[in-house]
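**Entry details**
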Amino acid sequence: MSYASYSRALVRDPLLPEVLGAPVVKAGVASAADARVSGFVGWGRKRSGLRAQDAARRSAKELVCLEDGFFGYWGHPASGDCVRLAYNVDRQGIYYDAHAPSDLESYLADGVEPDGPARVRVAAFCDQVREQRLSKYNHHRSTAMPASLRDKLAGADKICLVVDQTAGDQSIYFGLADDSVFRSMLRAALCENPGALIVVKTHPDVIAGKKASAIGNLDEFPEIVLVGEDVHPHALIEVVDRVYVVTSQIGFEALIYDKPVTCFGMPFYAGWGLTDDRVEVPARRGRLISKDKLIFDACFRYAVYIDPDSGRRCEPEVVLQWLALQRAYRSERISRLLAVDFSLWKRSWIGEFARVLADQVSHVNSAELSREDPQLPVLVWGAARAYELRKQYPGRRVLTMEDGFLRSAGLGTDLKRPSSVIIDDSGIYYDATRPSDLEKRIARVSVTEEQRRQARALIGRLVTSGATKYNLSSVDDDGIHAWVEARKASGRQVILVPGQVESDASLAYGSPAIRTNAALIRAVRADFPQAQIIYKPHPDVISRNRKGDTASEAGADITVENVSIASLYNLVDRVCVMTSLSGFEALLRGVKVSCYGLPFYSGWGLTDDRCASSRRSVQVDLESLVYHSMMAYPLYYDWHKKHFSSVFSVLDAVEAQAAGSARSVRAGGYLTKAGNFVEALLRRA
């Protein structure tokens, strides 16, 4: 079955099949009689909605009216660079049309108050909306009150907000009002609040001259503060004592803030005893409901949400959490950042991650840096370059970028663009010579129960999927399985020693005593003389992208190459590392880990440490370590959807792509690198 629409935009909308549970096809003269068409879909009271309404009535088929959700976008549709998050889906009318019933109105009038768990969800939902200042359009660079406006409001004993709309706005007529009531609303606010400061929030398009104001000219009211800039509505709602609206959604968001709201029209939230209503309430309304019911019915029962990462329907909490993630990644940015000495390939993709920090990223080389403004922060790749610049320019802010712990399905040395990076303002996680942002977090920041829940879910996913940093598929595991079983049958302990690239910076900065694979194997042999040692060279060495591996001299009992390291974790009794991330991956699976260097996960009471750091003195549990290191510290990015994502979303993509990673290793060399390089260039934002 399908739905037919007269709107080309709706027919092309890739999300609607998921929202409606059926595809949307172009409506034609035969649609009414076509048994495959179950109904007609249109946009609200726009032309496509009215045509759909007429076609549904004539054919006795279902009508579906759509509108933007109340928390509908990341960004603004007018910018052309936004992500849609929610639709309001109605099979009776549409929520803003008070002339006729709607599904939302029916929900609100049904007399069923939300139960205890639903009220808990509503309370958490409102907390998130207020804390993150989430709204219908989440495009504001800053959610703070501009200083110029804050100064105008300072000292007022009482502030009333009057919300203007653009003249002729469709919701005004369908909200049982017209443009003339705006003037009445303003006079009522002045009359009913003597001594109060009246703030009129008009639309930025009115100030720009693109549209007319519904409230009209305000020259006769010199005492009024007119707000025309695109100030985040919550910055105003928070500081006012009372809100006057006709049909604006700002009134609904003000109720979430527990502000008194007076309505001179009939928006969906009016007529239920929660607002001071100045127009006649339709007989269909009039029932007294709780604020919890209003929010639950509007935001949980009525709206349909789409997870931006998966493209599937989801609960509203998922969307709010995603919005909070985007807001956190893009807040308080600096105007310009200098990226120093990045390769051409890295330049093709670091901008997406660096925009967390800055509006503009300028690439310079070391020789040019001395001519740049010394107040501009610099971004470099790796601890060695950061160390050099800190020494050369003492006092300058130097940020370090590196691959994340769940990087991608493939090797960085094959020029595989990462899905995750780390940007550290203090050091970098593998540099044990100085504190990093991660080390500070682990030592000082406690995790909440919700964060623990998320960490447990992530551990389960990682272990079940077998995901690792590079996620390279195994070729043949059978031989090593038999080898391990034979050794364990004889009572021998089996130890895995993962190799590292011996020129790697993590060894120079994080392993004071042992810095070669051969030395590590000899140390493990000395500490565990009866054990059987499996040595697995680093994937970059196997693929010949990196040189140097002295382990062949050290005499491990067996060396394996084309075996997934995740499968080895399930076989061995212990993993011994210098600084390898493999030790962290083993901890997730409950394997004992001995550290001969100072990786970020050592020193917190979870590992057998042969090296110590005086800065790491607190004991943490695995859930705290996982949350800080894999959920709070890295940045994750979806290259196909072009927005920041969660670790779970990247893990989904890694699982889908990992099957092809073995081909990448086997192909190797310049062909693989060239393909990945071209992909990065073609898809750069």
In short: Confidence is low (pLDDT under 50) at residues 409-415, 659-685.
